[in-house]
Amino acid sequence: VADLDERPFPPGDYDVVVVGSGPGGLQTSYCLRRLGVRHAVLSADDGPAGMFQRFPVLGRLISWTQVEAPFERGTREYELYDWNSLLADEPEHRALVAEFMNADLDVPTREDMEQALVAFAARTELAVRYGCRWEATRQEGANLVLVSSDGEYRCRAAVFATGVTEPWKPKIPGIEHVPHYADARPAAHYRGKRVLIIGKGDAGFELAQGLLASARQVTLASPAPARATVLERASGRIGYLQTHGDHGPLVLDASIEWIEHGPDGFEINMKGTTQEGDLELEADEVIAATGFRTPLGDLPELGVATVAHGRIPALTPFWESISVPGVYFAGNATQGGPGLRKHGAFSGSVSVGGHRYNARVLAEHLAESRLGMRRQRRELPRGDLVPYLLSELTRAPELWIQKGYLARALTCASETGIQDEGFLPLEHFVDEAGPNAVAITVEMDACGTTYPAVYVRVNGELNEHVLPPHPTDDFEAEEHQRELAACLQPLL
Ligand SMILES: Cc1cc2nc3c(=O)[nH]c(=O)nc-3n(C[C@H](O)[C@H](O)[C@H](O)COP(=O)(O)OP(=O)(O)OC[C@H]3O[C@@H](n4cnc5c(N)ncnc54)[C@H](O)[C@@H]3O)c2cc1C
């Protein structure tokens, strides 16, 4: 019997190769296909959904989808209420997570998310070569060669959507006795026990919430205070701490000095950070929710630079390795492109809600800059500019979810008029020279106030304008019209 392999994308030459079939890989492939970019998608998995086939371990996401919302499912505005579904041009392929989840909850279960991603891949007929592992990489002239378990793939650019799921632990004496979050047991295992969770990131708070009802005591400890974004999401959206008031988990800002494991459990020695002093703690179970790293394979040997103790690739604003051209990243790894971080704000790139927009920008960038496929720009009559920009500032999900990170840009030249460039990384717009143009974004200051920001570039000089906030985030009233028109005057 002939050994027929009917899987798509046999080894060979492609313009772009995407590795991974999690949300990042699927979204990137969807966007590349719609632009007509010849590409292959490889995945070591047997089916779509990536890490949502097994994470989060306790089964509930932290990013929300509001099934009933002020806008109809499938509209662009609804994306603001649904941080989990992938993006599609066809309304029937949008907002799929809402279709699978329980309308009484505001966050999906892991299974809901997995089903929605499987449905997205099936309904949009996204082809992936499953069961194909990328094993090594080399450069050949301007091309990259990805060596896989099925053979060699030669391409002009590779997009690694390999996630950030390899367990990572800091060097602490005794931590080898502590299971990582990825190996945490079902909640029932911790019933009636004193549990110490090392780490105050999303995974730490997810565990804390999941164990609060059954564990005797839950303590979270790590040197840095919890990031506002985590606390906002945690207490604001699903009440990790809020519902328990003062009787929730104990949250300690302390560096763990050593951990001793004996027959009666764990003894942990800590040093306070925000408040000085030594702390001793006993726990029946300890879990290291200390983070993950991107599976980078041999890319560091190829010269791919990293940040965060080697965990994350260091990326340009368009998510290309800062040190090896042609090596791009999608999905959660796009957090390696930090953006401007004005007021210290983080991008939303670690979650599907944020990196789904990065994927669309990346696909357009690859098509234009690597493959010379210039897309059509929409022209805008001069009189429409102010109302259009204010409407985008008020409701564009790209701007509201990727605050201060993605911007809508329009160029302005006497020969071509006003042209809509679509969404770009704000950092790229601010740092690169270019034609006369305006970029708008929604920013958040250190107090959490959101306001529109306008960047106007005329004859190579960039000016930044901040428009006033509005109690209901409606930026279309007269005050904003007047102020925006004044900012645009030098451009027009
Ligand atoms: C514990 C945890 C909880 C999280 N909770 C949420 C949440 O609630 N909401 C949210 O939006 N985000 C959450 N995230 C972030 C999440 O990682 C991203 O949002 C997103 O799922 C990542 O998608 P991805 O496509 O980048 O990677 P993944 O989903 O991790 O997919 C990686 C893909 O790459 C493939 N791959 C890896 N190495 C190779 C190789 N060598 N060869 C071939 N294929 C390979 C894998 O098989 C897989 O298909 C969480 C992350 C963690 C770790």
How many H/I helices? 11
Average pLDDT, rounded to a whole number, is: 93
Largest sheet: 6 strands, mixed
Supply the helix-strand structural class.
Answer: alpha/beta
What does this structure look like?
This protein is globular. Strands 1, 2, 3, 4, 5 and 16 form a 6-stranded mixed sheet that branches. It starts with 11 loop residues before the first strand and ends with a helix. The protein has 492 residues and is α/β, with parallel strands linked by helices. The structure holds flavin-adenine dinucleotide (FAD). Flavin-adenine dinucleotide binds next to helix 1, helix 4 and helix 7.
Summarize the structure.
With 492 residues, the protein is α/β, with parallel strands linked by helices. It contains 11 helices and 22 strands. Helix 1 runs parallel beside helix 7 (352-370).
Looking at this protein, list some descriptive labels:
492 residues, alpha/beta, six-stranded mixed β-sheet, 11 helices, 22 strands, globular, binds flavin-adenine dinucleotide
